[in-house]
Amino acid sequence: MRQFNEDTLTDAVVARLKDTENPRFRQVMTSLVKHLHAFAREVGLTEEEWFEGIKFLTATGKMCDDKRQEFILLSDVLGLSMMVVALNHKTPPGATEATVLGPFFAHGAPEFESGADLRQGATMKGEDTYVTGRVLSTDGKPIPNAALDIWQAKADGIYDVQDPNAEFELRGRVKADAKGEFAFKSYKPKFYSVPDDGPVGELLRATGNHKMRPAHMHAIVSAPGYQQVITHVFVDGDPYLDSDAVFAVKDSLIGKYSKVDSPEEAKRLGMPNPFTKLEWDFRLAPESGVKARKTIAPSDAFA
Amino acid sequence: MRQFNEDTLTDAVVARLKDTENPRFRQVMTSLVKHLHAFAREVGLTEEEWFEGIKFLTATGKMCDDKRQEFILLSDVLGLSMMVVALNHKTPPGATEATVLGPFFAHGAPEFESGADLRQGATMKGEDTYVTGRVLSTDGKPIPNAALDIWQAKADGIYDVQDPNAEFELRGRVKADAKGEFAFKSYKPKFYSVPDDGPVGELLRATGNHKMRPAHMHAIVSAPGYQQVITHVFVDGDPYLDSDAVFAVKDSLIGKYSKVDSPEEAKRLGMPNPFTKLEWDFRLAPESGVKARKTIAPSDAFA
Known about the structure:
six-stranded mixed beta sheet, 7 helices, 14 strands
């Protein structure tokens, strides 16, 4: 095989995949090569543009470290992450919808009983918020002892893992109780900017896009026998709900953060008065009968 | 814009490109997003596979440094580099065909008059070879004073720039004379392996492909008023001509390296006897009337 031109080259490269041991890998690579070549042909990619692409990918790799995953961010802003979520998390009827994991999950977060205060040791203050709700199955029955991995950005719009001075902050694994109920204290999420000092920031500027994500709290909710859900709770009224830089907003995931002015309730819950309250239920589909949602180990991305 | 599913997401991401200032960049990004999403949909990309991709790209970026460009190598083995050559270098009738630049071009190589000995200071010996020929225009007329950037791997299959102990070796900018004639002394190229200790090596193994390139000498031939050509001369009879890891072989670029046993000729040329000889003419098309071939600055890849 030699003497390829733009019309024969793609088939030649695909033919070279014939000895791929894993048939699924062969399928994925075949599609990848075809689309990569089709892209280059469709736009008539010039050498200068190809080389800009090489430099962009190289810089994106160089930007990655144990705290920063620029390729996940790139996947996020190109809508690929959300596409993969859409392809893999068909929401079972009545279950909480999934959305992007994002690059800021961290293993080893502290574990708490329901009622925990995630503001403990916080380096920044925010709007005091009491989050409470239930973990339910899709038929409305409480699921006992579910685990909720919760994380969100600090008041300055960056996550604890991005901040060398922060330990785990506004982050923890909260256990729901035997009745499926959970509660924790945190701050009201604020909208923030994705990291924009790298190649992805350049890309956003070159395409005339802002870098903002609407305010949200992340949650991964897990219980034995149920499909895990990786999701967000967005804040109702946020100005960026319709232009999320990573395309992750779902109507069903927008929560109402309400102002509570009640000295009695504040006292009962151990909150200052007034305070903000979010009531939010998560609903999980049973594992049986459908393909289990597999979870990746996100922090491996920082290996 | 929110609430995207696998059917609506691609249009949403493309719509976000509407404010891209540069229309060509918008066109390229639109095609890229469409093909990226179509690839994910076509194979039903799983989260595990997506994450393997993220890790692969990250590792590829980490492998790049001032001596190694793993993304160019990746582009080479996926046939993308050769596709870009095919799209941008339609060979004018009668002109030397172009092929991949590869990642081992280096700026600042020593300049020589015709007759130069590129074996000077070589850290490894090879098969002594005398290369001679002419630089001609497509109508067969000699082009005076053309410049030939020449480089090739050493006998151990690696390039000088890959070897911390080597200076410029088997590499130089040779000037053709006023009659378009050039000559230089070097070693006969040998087939070699592309670097396989990184992610691209893993990819080659996973797809059951070897890592070899057929023996070749690189040349970039330039003359004022003519289209520059980036090309190779391959060695006739090489076992890898039909399975070049980077798909770069063209029939018209295979040269005959002949054994010469003639004490007189050896003496006249300043070669040992016997020696190997390659006679090779390069043919350049005039610049006028066609789009000039633009040259990228390859060593910028190592910035």
